[in-house]
Amino acid sequence: MRKTITGWTKLLLAGLLLAQGCVAPQPGPDLLAPTDAQMKLRSFQSRTFEVTDRKAAMRGVIAALQDLGFIIERANEPLGLVTAARFTEPDNLSVVEVSVTVRPQADGRMLVRANAIYNRSPVDDPKVYQNFFATLNRSLFITREE
Amino acid sequence: MKCRRPRLTRWLGAAVLLLALACLGGCVTLKPPEEFFELTPESPANKAMQTRFFETGNERELLSAAAAVLQDLGFQVEDVEREIGLLKSVKERSAREYGQDIGRFMVGLVTFCYVRLPMDFHQKISAVLVARPVDRNGRRSEVRVTFYRVVWKSDGYFERTSIPPGEQRMEMIYDPLIYQQFFAKLSKAVFLEAFTL
Fold it and tell me: Which CATH number fits domain A33-145: 3.40.50.11030, 2.60.120.200, 3.30.530.50, 3.40.1110.10?
């Protein structure tokens, strides 16, 4: 009796091991393909501005972020990249980090893309990006007026 | 004995209520991310405090003069992006203040050395400066500077639990005097008058 049980147990174990081998996920060819959510997020995060000078657009981005109380961490002109951060005052409980890229499009206008991170998790709320672009629009408009 | 009991329960009730209130005080609501991208009522005032205009189109001159002024004030220039007129500099100093020393001593005295408060120990003061032309004819430039600091705390202990050193916090510097002094020095360095709009 005892022998049969161990035999069954062995069989069961072998079966389990085999079954585990079967469920190993295979990366499909669509692993890197964009999903609908990603496409939507990209459209929230990007906006084209009627500015032809990339440096002026970058200066506008910096000015907008400064107006919002962000600390400019890094700016790189050849890459068109600006990174900045802002924390809650005075408790330091949450922090928002943002990286912005400015790239010229084929028609000469500037494409601005922003990525925000809130307490180490990416922000996918369109309202956040709308607020940022509204301030940027104002900043670029004032720069042009002057 | 009969009248003591209700008093005890009343005290207990009060203690429970106080505890509950203390627990509620611990609940804080985090600021939602969209509010970080909205201008606050203080934004224009901060901008005015941090910004001055100079009657020159040569923003590179302003940038190098600003670097010299910051060096005079003990800052080390950390990063410059000349093409877009950005300059970052830092200065590290002790953050000890007598007030905190006295406070720590008094708390130690009152609690019979059970509590040793951590104090501000070290600080890194940073200045982010941006110079940019604001006039199409190239006759006027704007300089905006932001000062902030990161403060590290020393160690301490609470009863027998030690509090390790190195807890840090960030603070924006909003003292108008610091900005006024900086711009006064900058305008002397470029032989131009700094003005606000």
Answer: 3.30.530.50
